[in-house]
Amino acid sequence: MSALRENALHEKFDLPGTDLARAACQFAEEQEGPYLFNHSVRSYLYGRALGEHRGLRPGADYDDELLFLSCVLHDLGLSAQDRGDQRFEVGGADAAARFLRERDVPEERVEVVWDSIALHTSLGIASRKRPEIALLHLGAGADVAGDGLDLLPADLVTEAEDLLPRLDLITSITDAIVEHAKADPRRAPLGTFPSLLVAEFAPEHAQPGWRQVVAAHAASH
Which range marks the domain in which residue 70 is found? Predict the structure, then answer.
C-alpha cells in the first residue's frame, strides 16, 4: 500500500494507528488480493459501527486494536501462502497468531485474535462471545451477506466502498473458499461453512453427508 493511500484510509476512517496495526495492515495487503484486503478493512469499519449501534464504545467496552487486528488478518487462510490442512478460518487464525507472536504480542491478546478469526463464520456462537469476536463476525457478515447493513450510516458504506471497492467480492471469495477446500478435503469438514460451499458449488468434491457417515459407522459394528 502506498503511504499516501494508507494515510488517507487512516485519516478518513480513524483506523488504529499503532505500529502493530499498521504492520498488520501492510502484511495483509501483501498476502491477499485487493478484493480480500478491502473486505477485511470494511469488516472492521462495519463491525465498529455495529458495535456503536449496540452502545459499545471502542477503547471503553472493547479493545479497538484487537478488533482491527482480527478483522484485517481474518482471511489470511485464503492466501496463497496457506498450505495447511485446516479449514480457512482456522488456517487464518494460525497465520495471524504467528504474525503476532513474531512481534512479541502477549499471549492473552494473541488468543483473542485467534478466537475471533477461527469463529468468524460460526453463526450463533461468535455473536455471543466477547465484543472483539462478535464484532468481527458482525462486520464480515454485513459486508458479505448484508446482515445488519441497514443499521449502518449510509455515508459510511458509500465512503468505504469508494476507497475500498468491492471488486466482485462475492464471486471471488466464494471461488477462493471452494478452491481452497478442493485442494485438501480436510479443509472442509462436515458441517462447516466451507463444506456448505463445496456441496453447493463443487458437489463432486463434497464430503460424505451425515447419513453416509452414521451408516458407515453402523455397518462397521
Answer: 3-167
